[in-house]
Amino acid sequence: MPPMPARQSGPLGLVALAKVMRHNPVESLADVNFQLTRVSGPFLGVTIHTLSGPDEIKAVLLDDVEAWRKSPVTQRILRSALGDAILTAHGPDWTRQRKAMTPAFLKARILALSPAMDRAGMDLTATFRQAAGPMDVTGPLNVATLSVIEAALFSEPAPGFDRAVVRAAIERVIASIGEVRFSDLVPLPEWVARPMGPKASAALRTLRAAVESQIAHRRETGLGEDMTSLLMASEDMSDRDVRDNLMSLVVAGHETTAITLSWALYLLSKDTATQGRVAEEARSALASDADPATGLAKLTFTRQVIEEALRLYPPAPMLSRRAMRASRIAERETTRGDLAITAFYAMHRHHRYWDNPDAFDPDRFAPDRRPTDPWVFRPFGGGPRACIGNAFAMNEAVLVLARVAAELEILDAGDVPEPVMTITLRPKTGLRLGFKPRD
Hints:
The chain has helices spanning about 15-25, 55-65, 70-80, 90-100, 105-110, 115-130, 140-155, 165-180, 200-220, 225-230, 240-270, 270-285, 290-295, 300-310, 345-350, 390-405, and strands spanning about 40-45, 45-50, 70, 135, 320-325, 325-330, 330-335, 340-345, 410, 420, 425, 430-435. It is α+β, with helices and mostly antiparallel strands.
């Protein structure tokens, strides 16, 4: 059985909850959250609804989306690093930015990036092939996925763009955002700044400067065809809007895909039969003269493996929303100030919706078995605020995984990764795997 975070047997007191949240927020979920679809109760004067059913989550993210907005603590954490980008904006500001960004994620534009995704898979395969023994795959995966984001956003980088420095800055910023503090449990208003430490602040300045140099370079040399140019061409986006949204895409876009791939590689290392099916499909679909975009359509089982990895280890296992006015969650009336926790992790492993829910079984996403209710499987959120780059991330993960599996056997190195939520659900101390060329 794949590793999973611990589950609580019952409600936690304030001190115990604070400790769990600081160590691993997803471990705040209790056994009951995997059996019922809504658990409500008071906490520090606020009613909290922990949701793990499709109807309940849909009620918050789609049915009455205007009544629920990101919680103050989420806003404080994200705004400290990402400003007023699409991840933190609300109302007309969010609508304006979403409209400006949508053309960048049209199907044709995403498919046009298939060669860049395939090259990232080839380069990653070369790195794994050269390893003398088991290696931590975290770094190489981040390099690979960052290269795809770079190709999408900065097809012609400005002079002086230092990938290693930018990647180190991203890691530092992500660590600061993902650090849960005891003060985060205090119900402060969202306008109260959440300070970053000196190292994280310096990393943030480095990242902002790198993105601003890309914008300035295009102002000087003219706009091109990449996503940065597309956003800059929009009359609805200021340069600051462009900067903050590019930072959001750089930080969130590459890291979530890298973590999904790490879990997929680990799961395949423990299941040689499934790994063999992926390798056979990938070798057929990605022949030497095949167009990656054409091959992508043939990687149906590989996509099921990625979907199953996302089910077991959703990138954002829990999100929080605060009620701005009275609303309803399924049959439950809610009041202004209530907090809803959309526990995708619990829904993805809920006994009511999945057979043997904690097991790795990609065939559950085969056409004749996959869920008929689209809200049962929500790895990228749902409703109008669902991840704008979900199709981009899926295509990238499928192509990269296929390229690695086609060329290399993925070997279990004996690691038992501990899934920890630091924004995303990642292996706590990295993940070592072995690789050897296929016959």
